Amino acid sequence: MSTPAGRRSPHGWQIGSLAGSPVYLGRSWPVIAVVIVVVFGPNLARPDRGPEYGYLAAAGYALLLLLSVLVHEAAHALAARWRGHPVDRIVADVWGGHTVYDATRTSPGSTALIAVVGPLANLALAGVGLLLQSVTTNDTALLLLTIITYANLLVGLFNLLPGLPLDGGQIVSALVWRVTGRRGAGFVVAGWLGRVVALATVAWFVVVPFVRGEPGDAFGMIFPIVIAAFLWQGATGAIRAGRIHEATAQPAAEVLEPLVVVAATTTLAQVDEALASGALRPTPARQVPDGQVWLATSDDRGWPVGVVEPGATQAVPPEARARTALSAVTVAQPGAWVVALAPTDVLTDLIRVMSERSLSYAVVVDSSTRSVLGLATAEQINAVVGAQLARRGRR
């Protein structure tokens, strides 16, 4: 459901759209606008123009900076669409902005291309600013052009630094992914480099001037620390995402539980007899130590409609099993709980689908043959991923 332009959504206020993707002004953006006006307003003041001149000029700079951010994010969005990735939204916020697109089927080349066009757009704007300065005679316009040109040059170069969450980090991540064949490894390497960039930012803008005894205002000392904290947080998130990606790179079939799909009208006594005689054979999923087999019930067309949770059938006494249908102990599931996967799909793909559909259980079928492969449970997946992360954490 779209949000009309000018209306507020969870992402902020929609101010337009680009190639069908909504563009939002984030709720945090007014914060940076106010900071710009308050901090730069007095510095841009001119005695011959009145006290309000500096604040109006600073407000103009804030608007030009917003335009620069939107151009940066538009470049990401258009590149993503060109590479075949649906773009969900573009948001300008207090940290600059971000573009959300579906990267589940991306490649190292696409990732690098989508990342690099953002900083290149800023550098192009800086070039345009330099050209306009050479033909501008109005002193106010020249002032704003000078400021925004320098800002775009700084933003473009800073974003090319090789560490996540910066665009340069995306390029490094894609390069590592290309070389190693492991996307998670790219996240981890670029995340650690992002931490280095965060520390270098504080060192260059705060520690070095302090050691040299160079005077600086509070904003000039605090702002780099805030940026570094943001970078450190993003880098840490990238490292964790990389480790999770590595932990879920195994074949999805390795976490599936053995499953038997039975008509919901079948009685528990009939299921007991069929399992004991071998008439009902579990799917060829992994073997579990206790030999436990999960049951899923189906409708009259054979479509799985619910799951019988462990212990539900054991709770029915022997004398009642012949008259108790499976439907009586079945937990109904949504129609989307049947998930089709290709043999080459990994656990990451299964987790993505279950997360998108908010599933605790999923009957997994082969995307080609439609044969049932087994049952995926959130509990088993969490246990496998947790064990993998624990092992990697001890290395």
Envelope shape: elongated
Strand order of the largest sheet: 1-2-3-4-5
Helicity level: 40-55%
Reported for the largest beta sheet, the result is: 5 strands, mixed
Query: Which strand-content bin applies to the residues?
Result: 5-15%
Please tally the helical runs, counting DSSP H or I stretches of 4 or more residues: 10
Query: Which stretches are low in confidence, meaning pLDDT under 50 for 5 or more residues running?
Result: 1-7
Whole-number mean pLDDT: 88
Q: Give Rg in angstroms.
A: 28 Å
**How many strands appear in the DSSP assignment?**
12
Helix/strand-derived category reads alpha/beta
Domains (count):
2
The gist of it:
This protein has 395 residues and is α/β, with parallel strands linked by helices. It has helices at 29-40, 52-82, 108-135, 139-159, 167-180, 183-212, 218-247, 268-277, 347-356, 378-393; strands at residues 8-9, 12-18, 21-25, 87-92, 98-101, 259-263, 294-298, 304-308, 331-332, 338-341, 361-366, 372-377.
